[in-house]
Hints:
Blueprint: E1 7-13, E2 16-22, E3 28-34, H1 45-58, H2 75-84, E4 93-94, H3 95-101, H4 108-116, E5 129-130, H5 143-153
Parallel strand pairs: 4-5
Antiparallel strand pairs: 1-2, 2-3
Amino acid sequence: xxxxxxxxxxxxxxxxxxxxxxxxxxxxxxxxxxxxxxxxxxxxxxxxxxxxxxxxxxxxxxxxxxxxxxxxxxxxxxxxxxxxxxxxxxxxxxxxxxxxxxxxxxxxxxxxxxxxxxxxxxxxxxxxxxxxxxxxxxxxxxxxxxxxxxxxxxxxxxxxx
Length: 161
C-alpha cells in the first residue's frame, strides 16, 4: 500500500450496499450507501474492521463504534458532526438544538447543510437529527433509509419501508 492509498470494504446491509473507506493511517473517512457490492479497492484490513462493526450495528449487536474517524469537511461541518456523534443511540435531536450548542442559534439551516454533507453515514448519525416539530427531513442516503435507521434503533425492525 502506498502512503496515499485509501482502503475500502463493502458489505450488504438490510438497507443496501455500504462502502467503508479509510485513509492511509486507518481512520474512517467515509461510510456511504452505494449501488452495488463491487470489489473492494486496496488492502482492506482497516476498512474491514469498521465494516464488521457496522454489520454488528445492523444486526442489533452494536450501538457504539470504537474506530477512529477523520471526516473531511470545513471547520464548521466538523463541529456539527462532533455534536451529532454525541446523540445517543435511539434518540433524536434537532437542527436548532445543535445550532444552540454550537453557540449560533441562527445556524439551523447551516447545521442542516453540514448534516447533508456528512461523509460518514450511520457512525456520524445524522439520521438522528430531525426538524424542530419532529418531522423527518432529508437524508443523503434517502429518507426511507433514515426512517429505517430510526425504526431499527427504536426496536421496530419489523417495519418495512
